[in-house]
Specification:
Blueprint (H helix, E strand, L loop, with lengths): L11 H16 L6 E2 H8 L13 H13 L3 E4 L6 E4 L1 H5 L3 H13 L2 E2 H7 L9 H12 L10 E3 L10 E4 L7 H5 L5 H31 L7
Antiparallel strand pairs: 1-3, 2-3, 4-6, 5-6
Helix pairs in contact: 1-2, 1-3, 1-5, 6-7
């Protein structure tokens, strides 16, 4: 089968369902293909997920139907429940190593090549970081006739030693926003406290200078 030249951008829920199938096929093959209940539990895991989701069963079912129409998911009957599997490599026309990296980026968000190699241990064992980087470069330089790039290298974040990578399976990303660390609530609160202290110090200094002037003294006490 010739892979399609392009697959429409996935929704975040579709990407989570698809990447969960990709993960479980490699980490728990004895329970794969997956039942709907097992798949839903995998999608809503609190660990190894970015962002953490709390999908309803109806959302997972709708995503599965869309993915099946795109040729990314198959459903098998037999036993007491339907089971679902993925066809990621066949649909996108990529090798195992590339599929692993894309699955991890969908599940865990932007990561460096080193993080991807470490997180891939249960999926696929890469020989070294340069091997990971080689497959990422191929995915970034993927020809337009094959559907175009599937990953993008983000700008280096302030203070970071390595650049992170993000997937493009859900469409274009805001490279600048993903490349910079998100401001935290704690950071904003600290900034506000510093500003308040600076204003208080300025007011105290003005008061001191006025009192010293009235007494004919130097503010420094000289």
């Amino acid at each position: 089968m010739t892979p399609p030249t392009a697959i429409r951008p996935l929704s975040p829920v579709e990407a989570r369902v698809l990447s969960t199938l990709m993960e479980k096929a490699r980490t728990v093959p004895d329970t794969y293909p997956m039942t709907l209940n097992a798949l839903l539990s995998g999608c809503n895991q609190k660990t190894s997920r970015e962002p953490v989701m709390n999908l309803a069963e109806s959302e997972a079912v709708a995503a599965l139907e869309e993915l099946r129409e795109l040729g990314l998911v198959t459903e098998t009957s037999g036993g007491r429940a339907a089971r679902f599997g993925h066809q990621f490599q066949k649909a996108y026309g990529v090798p195992e190593q590339s599929a692993v990296l894309l699955g991890l980026l969908m599940l865990r968000g932007p990561q460096t090549a080193g993080e991807l190699r470490l997180n891939a241990e249960r999926w696929y064992r890469f020989a070294d970081i340069s091997s990971v980087e080689g497959f990422l470069d191929e995915l970034q330089e993927r020809a337009e006739e094959k559907g175009g790039a599937l990953v993008v290298k983000l700008p280096r974040a302030p203070g970071a030693r390595e650049q992170r990578w993000a997937h493009l399976l859900c469409g274009p990303v805001d490279v600048d926003a993903l490349g910079a660390p998100a401001p935290s609530a704690g950071g904003a609160a600290t900034h506000d406290r510093i500003a308040a202290l600076e204003a208080e110090v300025a007011a105290l200094r003005a008061t001191l200078e006025r009192v010293c002037s009235e007494l004919g003294l130097s503010p420094s006490g000289q």
